[in-house]
């Protein structure tokens, strides 16, 4: 039986389908497992990094050298696809990882803007949100860290998808408002709606997130994550 966490790994892996030779930069356990799965299966051209100065294979072994100056060249030229997190995200993909509440007197200080503006304006970006909730999917973010479609400029801006523990969402609509692309098996459309603080675009019958192949399940369970760390991020259901 496929677990919810395994559907999330598959959904994250699909974010990099068709990217070709780009630098995959996943943030978080499940996105990392997804990137490694994509590299081992349908996206063999992906470049993976150790986060410092090396390119590595899906087994973690060094494959090449990626000094920071070359990393920055890739970042600003559309040759990277990062999957970030979001403390808040709105219907057009504006992301907040900086603070909650009014900027002058926030109720909670978070990471700060970090590299989110550069990421969202200069190369494709996806998001991984392990807990789909109304406090995350908000009508209006308190602070714009990553830039959404209603504020976008530049030729490389492309928000690919949002993966959560409930569903996969994208911006494949005429006005680039967030659309419910699929629900993970066992989740209903009404559950996703109830956990979202704005009205999602829903085009007819929403499909289930695709099933992993037997080989993909084997890779996830025996090669990529034999310790079962995925279940710590998304509990089995």
Automatic annotation (TrEMBL):
Gene3D superfamilies: Glutaconate Coenzyme A-transferase (3.40.1080.10). It holds the Pfam family CoA_trans. PANTHER family: ACETATE COA-TRANSFERASE YDIF, CHOLESTEROL RING-CLEAVING HYDROLASE IPDB SUBUNIT. It comes from the Bacteria. This is CoA-transferase subunit beta. Belongs to the 3-oxoacid CoA-transferase subunit B family. InterPro entries: CoA_trans_fam_I, NagB/RpiA_transferase-like. It comes from Streptomyces roseoviridis.
